[in-house]
Amino acid sequence: MYYDHDLISLNRALRANDRMFFRARMLTILIETSLRFTSLKTTEKILSILAKKVSPPNEKEMVAILDKYATIFNQINHQPDLKGRCLSQSLALRCLLQRKGITSALKIGVNQIRGNFDAHAWLERDGILINDHPSVIANYFVLPESKLNMTLKIK
């Protein structure tokens, strides 16, 4: 038997999750558009406008926030019509985490697979992978930070 206050709390939590999913997807779409028409550097400048100065959460809150956002972006990746590029999703996740006071590093790696050039983007915090699996990034050569400051346009 469920009590009314339990159902109300559950309903609020589900609506909050839906709002987070919607915001994350809209931000990803805006970033994809910006990357299409500008550079990575310009897109990061635009995203810096959304940044807030907040103190970092304690370790327990940080784990909960990271888990919540990782789940949201995992949901986006599992819906074929909502899949976004790894770069736009990593930038969106980094922006959302910054707004919660959590810093992360954008990593971009390159690889050559069967003669084809491939690139991939992900986030790390203190050397720990946030939004990808180690087996996915294992074969990528990580570009140095200085190379990321060059103009990078997405076609």
Automatic annotation (TrEMBL):
InterPro entries: McjB-like, McjB_C. Residues 44-142 form the Microcin J25-processing protein McjB C-terminal domain. NCBIfam families: lasso_biosyn_B2. This is Transglutaminase superfamily protein. It comes from Chitinophaga dinghuensis. The lineage of its organism: Bacteria, Pseudomonadati, Bacteroidota, Chitinophagia, Chitinophagales.
